[in-house]
Design goal:
Length: 91
């Protein structure tokens, strides 16, 4: 599902204009991005949690050349689905 389809679903279910629906979806996603950018986790009840995790420096291999190399430390976003989410999706 794409963002435009989420906007359309909101228009159909709530009965607001497409422009209002687009603004709501954009605000929702911006709030999540802003919180994650600060290093905070985002928890949505009965859906799941978005977490920012620090990965340490490690050894890796360049797949093209086969040379060993150091992979720099970095932050990654992780999604952990809630029990209710798993239960509804993985029937």
């Amino acid at each position: 599902m794409r963002k435009a389809e989420i906007v359309d679903a909101l228009v159909d279910k709530v009965g607001i204009s497409r422009q209002q629906s687009g603004s709501i979806v954009e605000l929702f996603l911006s709030a999540i991005k802003e919180s994650l950018g600060k290093g905070e986790s985002v928890k949505i009840a009965e859906f799941g949690s978005f977490l920012v995790r620090q990965k340490n420096e490690r050894k890796g291999r360049n797949m093209k050349t086969g040379d060993m190399m150091q992979i720099k430390p970095r932050k990654v976003v992780r999604f952990k689905a809630s029990y209710q989410f798993k239960k509804s999706v993985l029937k």
